[in-house]
Every structure is written in structure tokens, then in C-alpha cells.
Amino acid sequence: MTLYYEQHGAGQDIVLLHGWGLHGGIWASVTRELSTLGRIVVPDLPGHGRSRDFMPREFTPEALAEEVQKLLNGPAVWIGWSLGGLIALAAAQKFPQNVAKLVLVGATPKFIRTVDWPHAMDATVLDQFALALERDYAGTLTRFLSLQVAAAEDRETLRQLRQELFQRGEPNVAALRAGLHLLKEEDRRAVLGAISTPTLIMQGERDQLVSVGAARYLAAHLPHARLEIIPRAGHAPFLSHAAFFIETLTDFMHG
After folding, report:
1. Known catalytic membership, residue 82
2. Catalytically annotated residue among 82, 154, 211, 241
3. Domains of the chain, with CATH numbers?
4. What is the pLDDT of residue 153?
């Protein structure tokens, strides 16, 4: 069994990786425009969406990257959002010959705050989500989405997130649990300097899950990185600022 995925357009592969608790359908509003740039490959990650019944041997960024790589025809542009960003970073480290360019959206090398890493949320936030997940995973996911918008007035982005949440069925709770554990434990800071892939970092100015400080750290430690901070955007700028997202990505692809 392989991952469920959809494809659009033709040419060089461009893979779009979604975040925790969602599925590939979250990219629907931008895939048509992006399909002019190449063959857009949009998987549902293991345990999510229509890949609900597929779980890899390990739920690590490397193992997930290997499953995604099986869908691609050759060197590809990897675009990772949030959890998907960790997977894209793992791909660039594990098989750099297959990652032509890297795009990180609302991504961070480490999601949890520690003494030496102030650019993140407190560990208790994910601990609370993990506890709530066992009692009411649907409600927990819905609350998690509310953290992804910049402000209460960004109702349209929140509406799109909630509309897509269970559009492809309910996710595998074991995958949700494994994903939270991954977000809590992962730390990819030490490997950034070895990733020579040309990289675009797109970061919402008002992101409540990933701070601008984390994006600046990525830009400073990835050898060939360009940073775009999107004013007034939250965690999902490809929804809230779709035109800017597409324009910036197109410029990067052609650059």
C-alpha cells in the first residue's frame, strides 16, 4: 500500500506537504495556479485523509520523507508546511540529490521551547493537546485550527481550515498521537548547515505556532536560504495571502 495522492499539471515534480491533523486537500486553493510551474503532487500523509489506513514502520520525518519520495519521478521541489516542513528538511538531508529546491512555510527546526531555544511554544501546550486527543480528538483538532489564524477577524482562513478538516474522512488517532510526539521531540537545528539546497522560507508575521524568530534562525543557518516574512499573516499564509504566496513561489522557482 502507498500513500494516497493527487497530481495536477506536468513537468518537474513539486510536492506539497500538509500539516498535522489535516490532509492534502488543504492546498486545493493554490494547486491550480501552481500547476503551471510543474507536476504538482499532493499526498495525504500516513494516517491522514485518504491515507488513514496506511502507517509506515516508523513515524519519523525520515520515514515519512521516504514514503513521499516513492510518489515522485525525479528531483523535485519540496514544499512543506508546519509538520510538512520537518519532513521536507529530512528529505533535503537524507537524499539531497532528489530535492532540487526547498520551500518551508510556517516551519521550524524545533517546535518546543527550551533554555537554548526561545522561538517556540511551551511544551505544556502540546501536552494538553495530547491529553485532550484521547478524550475528544475532533474537538482537539478544531481548537488546534484556531491557533493557526493571525487574529479573530481572519474568519475566512479559519473557515477554510475547518471546512477541510474532515473532508476526506476522520484521521487515524494513532497517527495524530505519533505526530504530536514528533512535534514535541524533533530538533533539526544541528543538521541545517549541511543542507545546501536552495531554500525559500515563508513565514507569517503573526504566526502563533511558529515564531518569526524561528524563521530567522532557519534563514541564518541554511546556507542558501531566502526569507519572506508575510505581514499580518498567521500560520497558513497560502490560504490567507494566496496571491502573495503564489507570486513569491513563482519568483523563487524561476530564479
Report:
1. yes
2. 82
3. 5-254 (3.40.50.1820)
4. 60
